[in-house]
Fold each of these.
Amino acid sequence: MKNWIHIALPKGRLGEKAYAMLKNSSYDCPALEDPGRKLIFENPEKGIRYFWVKPSDVAIYVERGAADLGIVGKDILLEYQPDVYELLDLRMGKCRMAVAGKKDFRDPVGQTLKVATKFPNITRSYYSGKCRDIDIIHLNGSIELAPILGLSHVIVDIVETGTTLRENDLMVYEDIVPISARLIANIASYQFKDTQINTIRERLQGQVESKYD
Ligand code: PRP
C-alpha cells in the first residue's frame, strides 16, 4: 500500500509559490491548479495530498500529524514554538519582524512601553532581552492603526515591502529578526516516511540552491 504524503500549504501567495516549487520537483497536482472553493487536492499517482490552510494554522496541522509536511513562515515558528522538525529554509517569502512607530516617536523612558502586535511571544522575548518593561496589546490585524490612534506607542510586526508603514506615516525603529518560509515535518512522519520526505526535501533544496547560490 502506498504511503501518502500530506502537505499543508499556506493559503495565499506564499502557498502558491511553494506549490510551484513542489510542482517543479515533480509533485504536481493538477486538481489544485483550478481549486474553486475546495480545500483538499490529491494526485493518487504521486501519492500526494495537499491542503490549503490558514497560514498561521499550518504548524498546528503538522505538529498534530494531520499533515506530514507544511510550508510556514519563520514568524509562526518563533511565535508558537511548535514541536516539529524544521527541514529547510526555502529562502522565499522574505520579510522581517521589526519595531515600528510614528515618525516623531520617542521612547517614554521610565514608563511602561505600550506595544501592539499579533506576535506577543516574540515581542515579550525581544523586550525581556532588553530588560524593557512593556504592556502588550494583542491585536489580530491592521496593527499599524494602533500607534496612529494612540492605542500603543509602537508595534511589533512583519515588514515586507514597507509600503503599509510608509502609507501610514510610520517607520521602522529596530529590526528584530529576518523571516522566510520554512519546510517543516511532523516528528513521527519524519521517522516513518523518511525516504519520501527526504526526497522532497532534497529536491526542494536543489531548487533553492540553483536559484540563490
Ligand atoms: C502584514 C503585516 C503588515 C503588512 C506588511 O499584514 O502585518 O501589515 O503585511 O507588508 P508590507 O511591508 O509589504 O506593506 P497582512 O497583509 O498579513 O494583513 P493584516 O494587517 O491583516 O495582518
Note: Residues 195 and 201 are 10 Å apart (CA to CA).
Amino acid sequence: MSKIITLHEFIMDSQAEFPFASGELSRLLNDIVVASKVVSRDVRRAGLTEDILGAQGEINIQGEEQQKLDVVADKAFIKMFETGGEVCGIASEENDDFVAFESEISKFGKYVVLFDPLDGSSNIDVNVSIGTIFSIYRRVSEAGTLATMKDMLQPGNKQVAAGYILYGSSTMLVYTTGHGVNGFTLDPSIGEYCLSHPNMRMPEKSRLYGMNEGNIEICHPGIKDYVQYCQSFENDFETPYSGRYIGSLVADFHRNLIKGGIYIYPKTKTAPKGKLRLLYECNPLAFIAEQAGGLAVTEKERVLDIIPHTLHQRCGYITGSKNQVEKVQELIAKRDSEI
Ligand code: AHG
Ligand code: MN
Ligand code: MN
C-alpha cells in the first residue's frame, strides 16, 4: 500500500526547490491551504444557509454582480494573508484597488498575492463547479515599506508560484512553483489535502475543445475556422471533436489539464479587450499550463510575457494542449490580415 502524502508534508519536503528557500513561501502556501478549507466548507453548505447563497447586491469593479460567496471567499483569503506575515499586499477581483497591509510584520512580508477568490461564481446557484485562482510574486519594493502598484504589475513570467482550488465533485488544490504541477485532493474525513495527482502532464493533443460559441461570429475569423476544423471530418482525428464548456474557467482548465483539450476566450466585438483578467485568471493558469507541457497565448503572444499596465487588465485567452493551441494560432495567423 502506498504512503499517504499530505500537502503540508509535500510543501515541507519541496522547500529546497523553492526560489529563495527560506520557509516563507511554504508558510504562505499553508495559509492558502487553510483559507481554501474554510471556503470549501462554505461552498459545500451553500443552499443550506440563507446568508451564503445568492447575490450580494453590489456590482464589483468589473461591472459584474457580486455573489455572497464571492465576498465570503475574498474575506477568508484576505484574512489569512493579512495575519500570516508573509504577504505585504494583495489584489483581488473583488477589490477596486490593491490592498497594502499596514502592520509592521506584513510590511516585511516578501510576497504579494493576486487572486480570483471565486471563479465561475455565476455557477454557484446551479451547483456547478467553481474555484479559486492565485498567483504569487516576490515584491519589488523595499521590505519594511508598504506594498506598491509596481509589486502588483509584474509580468506572469516572474511568478514564483501559482495554483487553483477546484470546488468540484471533490475539492482539489493544484499548484506549481516552477518545478512541475502537482494535484491534491481534500479528504474531508481527515481535513487534509492528500497527493492524488503527482507530476501532472497535459496531453499534447485531444479531441476536446471549449469556448462560449455564442461569441463565434464576433471574434477573430481564425477562431471560427478552428472551431469548424474541430467540427469537421477534415481534422487530425478525421472525426468531429467533442465540445466541452462549463463556464467556470478553473473547471474547464482542470478538465483540459487531465484529459487534454483547449479553452478559448477570445477578444470579441462586445469585449474588445477580452473578458478574462490577466493578473489573477490568465497568468496563474498559464504558468500551470506551461509547467504541465501545455501552452497559453492571446490571439498572438505568450500570456506570461505580457507587461501589465492595470490591475484588472483583460486579455484574449487560449490555453490547453500544445498541438491544439498551435493549430488555432496557425489559423489565426492565416486570417489576421482581414482584421
Ligand atoms: P468570475 O466568476 O470570476 O467573474 O469569472 C467568470 C469567467 C470564467 O470563469 C468563465 O470561464 C467565463 O467567465 C465565462 O464567461 P461566459 O459566461 O461569457 O461564457
Ligand atoms: Mn474568474
Ligand atoms: Mn471571481
Note: The domain at 208-337 is CATH 3.40.190.80 (D-Maltodextrin-Binding Protein; domain 2).
